[in-house]
Design a protein that fits this description.
The chain is of the alpha/beta class. The chain contains nine helices and twelve strands. The structure holds S-adenosylmethionine (SAM).
């Protein structure tokens, strides 16, 4: 499936909940956050139907996200039902890892093999500060169990935050010692914490102190990140730089929020409602036509997205 700018769209990011067990200061909306009422959140049946329709249209890669997806009951069963669909190429999960140790066996049994775990610092005190009280040891326990179980690739998302995780050495050490792919991410400008922005270029300069990084093969499911490694490193270091190194020209994704709003671009306010038609008996063709509509509305790049989402958290704008 191609959009108006000839980009192949084959990836859908599905937020299964807006609830989260962390309160990361940069992800929080500025205003009081109003949780979506439970009856407005798409049921697994509705989500599975949507996945099947998207699959028919050529979208065969799915990422499950949130809020914190592991907060939603029976997530592993839902993942299993997606993994088992014919022609699915890739299913992955983005999690803060806090509940990973509880669900690691279920997720493996469900057929999930790829994980992205968000860990912004390896310092317990700073982790609690950034996340509003999260327990880093619990996340690292989940990471170790995931490695033992054989999940691969495991990617670690690290949002670059001035004054909070300036020391990147612990992440270089982590990627040297373990087969994990650490990705440094530029803070989204709509974050309530814009003052903490650090560019990828700044991070690269700091990383140069640890040795000569050479270009590395991207791990499976590679999105917009570029990867590098030091000699002998078991994993790699990647960069996701939406501001300083735009990658809109290769964007391949659509996003579905927990209440069924389909967004063609993270930076746009525009979305198409799928929940109402799904609940009012729309046919697969009618739902498919709405997906095509979102595809047609996908802007060429973030500058043309026309969004006014400043001050909102990522949870609020679709995972
Ligand atoms: N709860 C899950 C997690 O923590 O991975 C999934 C949802 S979370 C919104 C997905 C990712 O978005 C996390 O890696 C988080 O750090 C990142 N994120 C949230 N707000 C962001 C922002 N303003 N700029 C850049 N990344 C952000």
């Amino acid at each position: 499936m191609k959009d108006s700018f000839n980009r192949k769209i084959n990836y859908m990011r599905i937020s299964v909940t807006d609830r989260c067990n962390l309160r990361c200061f940069y992800c929080q909306p500025q205003k009081e956050f109003r949780f979506i009422p439970h009856n407005e959140i798409l049921s697994y049946e509705e989500l599975l139907r949507l996945v099947k329709i998207a699959l028919e249209m050529g979208i065969n890669r799915f990422r499950i996200t949130g809020g914190e997806p592991l907060m939603r009951k029976n997530l592993s069963q839902f993942i299993k039902s997606v993994v088992e669909l014919d022609r699915i190429k890739d299913v992955s999960l983005t999690t803060n890892g806090l509940l990973l140790s509880h669900f690691i066996d279920d997720l493996w049994e469900a057929g999930l093999r790829r994980l992205n775990i968000s860990i912004d610092t390896l310092d317990q005190k700073k982790y609690a500060e950034i996340t509003g009280g999260g327990d880093l040891n619990q996340v690292l326990k989940g990471l170790n169990l995931a490695l033992e179980k054989g999940f691969s690739p495991i990617k670690i998302n690290v949002v670059l935050l001035k004054g909070l995780n300036d020391d990147l050495a612990p992440f270089v050490e982590l990627a040297s010692r373990l087969p994990v792919h650490v990705r440094f991410i530029e803070l989204m400008e709509f974050s309530p914490a814009r003052d903490h922005f650090v560019s990828c270029a700044d991070a690269r300069v700091r990383l140069a102190a640890y040795g000569l990084f050479e270009k590395a093969e991207p791990p499976k499911g590679a999105g917009p990140a570029r990867y590098y490694k030091l000699k002998g490193m078991k994993g790699s270091i990647g960069f996701i730089c939406p501001y300083t190194e735009h990658f809109c020209s290769s964007c391949n994704r659509l996003r579905v929020s927990a209440d069924g709003k389909l967004k063609p671009c993270l930076f746009s306010d525009w979305s198409v409602d799928l929940k109402t038609p799904l609940r009012q008996g729309a046919t697969d063709e009618e739902v498919g036509a709405l997906i095509l509509r979102a595809l047609r509305e996908k802007p060429e790049n973030r500058f043309k997205a026309g969004g006014k989402i400043k001050g909102k958290g990522l949870r609020e704008v679709g995972g």
